[in-house]
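Contributing new complexes? Match this layout with phosphoric acid mono(formamide)ester.
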Amino acid sequence: MTTLNQTPSLAGRDLLSIASLSAEELTSIMDLAERLKRDPISGAGALAGRSIIMLFEKASLRTRVSFEVGIHRLGGQAIYFDQSRQRLGERESIKDYARNLERWVDGIIARVFSHVALEELAEHADVPVVNALSDIEHPCQAIADVLTLRERRGSLDGARLCYIGDPNNVCHSLMLACATLGVGITVIAPPGEGPDGDIYDCAASLASAAGAALDVSTNPRDVAGHDAVYTDTWTSMGASSDPDRLRAFEPYRVTPELMARAGRDALFMHCLPATRGAEVVDEVIDSPASVVYDQAENRMHAQNALLAQLFAR
Ligand code: CP
Ligand code: NVA
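Output block (do not edit by hand):
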């Protein structure tokens, strides 16, 4: 499907961090995703004859199903490999794992506890490796999220997004995606719970190059004046669920009052799964402002666009 592959520079690359994509590359993935959403037939055959393994150390609904269905739609084969009882590197070295896999499959999609394991896999596998969530980033989610925001607003020009809650993997990839695309982003979290320092530095330099605002605050009132309010679970997979830590997040719950403060037309976003009643209440996630199921649907279109470009012939 050569006609689909609008960004030849993506062919054969890994996607471990969203920061590895330029604004032009991210935009071309979003453009292709919109086209595949409108006209699914146009993607048929993009992965013909390709086999892609999906190594999952952690649970998943959206990522697993959207990749499996998406790869099928593009004419490829997805092989799900449950790594939940045996983490990468336990049975044999990650290097040997990678060097075996590359002899059979055309690509690796991996959901891992440790981002370092993902980097080691990519270092030794001579086929594209895609991060399907690590402790540090969730790049495929961020592509779907900026696509959803663009779809709803018509454009990302002048857009401002607010992430409130636990500054986790999802938040990190959003910060980097927004900064790359010149979308303003404010991260609001309890004192002592800020984003990873290296991610912040990287996002700050991308934001400054793109002329976008990147702010970090501890004050929930700073949601005011944003196009979208985004939150995620306060307890990511593998993270601490210490009740004392969780108590600090209470003032950061997304309620109708907080949404009203954000702005009359503000959208509500969440990568899901949600802990209803914790980071968000039913009245918000079930409200007309909520685009959470659009985000979930767009995972597949965004990932299909990404895969079509990574596996361009
Ligand atoms: N948003 C997301 O990645 O969902 P899953 O954990 O269900 O894959
Ligand atoms: N931050 C969450 C995202 C799940 C899709 C986690 O890592 O569990």
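Reviewers usually confirm one structural detail per submission. For this one: DSSP finds eleven helices and nine strands in the chain.
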